[in-house]
Design brief:
- The complex is a heterodimer of chains A (382) and B (287).
- In chain A, helix 3 packs antiparallel against helix 7, helix 4 (186-198) crosses helix 6 (235-268) and helix 7 (280-300) packs antiparallel against helix 8.
- Chain A starts with 8 loop residues before the first helix and ends with a helix.
- Chain A contains 9 helices and 13 strands.
- Chain A has 382 residues and is α/β, with parallel strands linked by helices.
- Chain B contains 1 helix and 23 strands.
- In chain B, strand 20 (252-255) and strand 21 (258-261) form a beta hairpin.
- Chain B starts with a helix and ends with a strand.
- The chains are: A alpha/beta (382), B mainly beta (287).
- The interface between A and B is large, with 53 and 37 residues.
Chain lengths: 382, 287
């Protein structure tokens, strides 16, 4: 017997609020402006020098020119070539024939100081205090290229938030699509679901073949259009239509698979009435939610390292199987227009035809029906 | 859901924003002129006189994951080139080298990329600016501009000649795409010929300022509209070619296909307008 168990309104409200909060936080985390990664003492000088040389706004210096700590070029002295300080200021009062670079500090060119090359500060500022710089003065907040240029990785909490928001977002999108499918393509959905129930493994096989053949089929389609010459103009439309068709088939198939999953889950609980019509929307959402729970578990445990990765792997595999089976069933049923036996789904019953009203029901045991009256032959009429 | 899976799977390594700042300047030394080439994609672009006595001063703030700024100064030709190339495509890009998917929300490039260029006051400048989809403000006051070529895509651009240009401009070309252009005090530009071409966007030109003699203004408008604000003491002669376009110039009178203002014969300074309007409107108002 079908047991209707409505979701408590308060719980639904709390769930919706939670979903909204997670989504907003996820969005904020995405748009937040992460600061550039600053230089640290643990960075390799060689790596920094290499990255600085490859940076479009950087400068090339020799590794041997870098000295740790504050550096100074005294007045009256000359440095042949380049000089660089590592995590300390660089004060130039004398002459530098090459480039002057401060890595992780400020560079000051004082009165009487001359830098014939470029004056560059990475993670600091170049200040001109009466000196002369023959080249360019550049201040870079951080490196742009190389391994040290990458943004600081997300914290586990940020990664989890982002993952959860993505999962919730996709669930909501699929829920909306599913609602429309249940309302406007219910027949197709049920036919595809019937196909899945009828032959699960064959649908999976068809799905795999369909996924493999999708792109080659698109290429064949384009080539065929090219051959016709006139069809060349239709190629952009064909590509868009093909992709949309494929996406629609995948979505419809997955929704049908969700419907079957929800149906199976409710039958397992013994909550399905054999007499009442199947509540399509309810089954659909229950199935979608089951997949959603898998992903949500994986997302919430993003911080847990291999355990989260394992859960996401399981969720991905389960979802892929569901998508593949659904896609295969959609292909096999031609979008839900063919029932498992290759029959076209029966059309809605029409009103009885008046001239067949004379027929009597024919039992299996074989009672002969009355002969249909036919007009007499023309010869007799004459 | 499968896509969600892939995205969630990669979520921990999808690139975040990484903001950088680059400032670059150069002492003027013996430079006697400066050519500036700017190719700016999206964001906010400002150009004005430098606040310090340098040849140029470039300040750029950008997301290193989205923009690759490059600037280069060629001392031999005295040319400063600044580019802000997009680092990635839209809306999705697959970085095969790092095996990850980049997701770019709509309008992300407009989010915070700032380029400010300061230029030396006393140095003759040749400016060639190609702007994409940005908000641009060009304050050319106190600068010595010898040549200005401005091309915009979908930029909202404001150009101001706040003070008279100390040198004559050999050319002033403004090519506007799909957004708007406002030019303030164009009369201070000291240009004998000004060419303005507008696409879908519109342009508003204020001819106020100080100039003597005759200014030639060549306007080509397609689909958009051009509004000219002309000082009352300036004589106007306008030759208009219209194709499904319209002219709104109440103070001008037509004679033999040419429009003239009442003071055309007596005005000390004049503007000759040669306009082509295709599906566009041309308004000429007197200030």
């Amino acid at each position: 017997m079908w047991i209707h168990r409505p979701v408590p309104k308060r719980a639904a409200f709390v769930a919706a609020a939670l979903v909204a909060a997670v989504s907003i936080q996820g969005a904020q985390a995405q748009t937040g402006r992460a600061p550039a990664r600053a230089l640290t003492m643990g960075d390799s000088i060689t790596a920094v020098v290499d990255s600085l040389a490859r940076d479009a706004n950087g400068v090339a210096i020799e590794r041997s020119a870098v000295r740790a700590g504050a550096q100074s070029v005294p007045a009256g002295s000359t440095v042949t070539g380049s000089i660089a300080s590592w995590h300390g200021p660089l004060d130039v009062r004398g002459t530098v024939t090459g480039n002057a670079v401060a890595l992780g500090g400020d560079l000051v060119v004082h009165t009487g100081g001359v830098v014939r090359g470029d004056a560059v500060a990475l993670g600091g500022r170049v200040q001109l205090d009466g000196g002369t710089v023959g080249g360019e003065m550049r201040s870079l907040s951080a490196l742009t290229v190389g391994p040290l240029a990458r943004a600081a990785p997300r914290t586990p909490a940020q990664a989890a938030k982002r993952s959860v928001s993505l999962t919730v977002g996709w669930y909501l999108v699929l829920a909306v699509i599913g609602l429309f499918a249940a309302l406007f393509a219910r027949g197709n959905l049920e036919t595809i679901a019937e196909r899945i129930r009828d032959d699960f493994s064959r649908c999976f096989f068809y799905g795999v073949v369909g996924e493999i053949a999708f792109l080659p089929a698109l290429v064949v389609c384009i080539v065929a259009l090219c051959i016709t010459v006139i069809g060349i103009l239709l190629i952009p439309f064909a590509i868009v239509g093909f992709l949309l068709g494929g996406a629609g088939a995948v979505a419809l198939g997955f929704l049908a698979m969700s419907y079957v999953t929800g149906d199976a889950a409710m039958r397992w609980r013994g909550a399905v009435s054999p007499y009442a019509p199947p509540p399509v929307v309810q089954f659909l959402f229950i199935g979608l939610s089951l997949y959603f729970v898998l992903w949500m578990a994986g997302s919430l445990l993003t911080w847990a390292g291999w355990l989260g990765a394992l859960l996401r792997l399981v969720a991905a595999m389960v979802t892929w199987v569901a998508v593949t089976v659904g896609f295969g069933a959609t292909l096999a049923s031609r979008g839900g227009t063919r029932t498992p036996g290759g029959r076209v789904p029966p059309a809605p019953l029409a009103a009885p035809i008046s001239d067949a009203g004379w027929e009597t029901p024919t039992p299996v045991s074989g009672v002969a029906a009355a002969r249909r009256p036919t007009p007499p032959p023309r010869s007799v009429q004459r | 859901m499968l896509c969600a899976g892939l995205l969630a799977w990669h979520a921990p390594i999808v690139r975040g924003q990484a903001w950088r700042t680059v400032t670059a300047s150069r002492q003027r030394a013996s430079a006697d002129s400066l050519r500036v080439r700017v190719y700016f994609g999206a964001g906010t672009f400002n150009l004005a006189a430098a606040t310090t006595p340098v040849l140029y001063d470039v300040d750029m703030r950008y997301d290193a994951g989205r923009v690759r700024p490059v600037h280069n100064y060629d001392a031999a030709t005295g040319t400063l080139t600044i580019r802000s190339d997009s680092a990635i495509g839209h809306p999705f890009s697959l970085d095969l080298k790092r095996a990850r998917l980049n997701i770019n929300g709509p309008g992300d490039d407009r989010n915070g990329t700032d380029l400010t260029v300061g230029l030396s006051r006393g140095v003759p400048l040749d400016l060639s600016l190609a702007l994409g989809a940005c908000d641009a403000t060009l304050d050319l006051s106190t600068l010595s501009v010898r040549r200005l070529q401005l091309e915009t895509g979908a930029s909202q651009t404001t150009v101001t000649f706040g003070t008279p240009n100390p040198i004559a401009m050999s050319s002033l070309d403004l090519d506007i795409g799909a957004a708007g252009l406002t030019v303030n005090s164009l009369g201070n530009a000291h240009a004998s010929t000004v060419r303005v071409s507008t696409g879908v966007g519109g342009a508003e030109l204020d001819l106020a300022g100080t100039w003597t003699g005759t200014m030639n203004l060549v306007v080509t408008a397609a689909l958009g509209g051009v509004t000219l604000h002309v000082p009352g003491d300036v004589g106007i002669e306008a030759r208009i070619s219209k194709t499904l376009g319209n002219l709104d110039a109440p103070d001008l009178t037509e004679r033999d296909g040419v429009y003239h203002s009442a003071n055309w014969a007596t005005a000390a300074r004049k503007v000759v307008i040669d306009a082509t309007a295709t599906l566009a409107g041309l308004d000429i108002t007197r200030e």
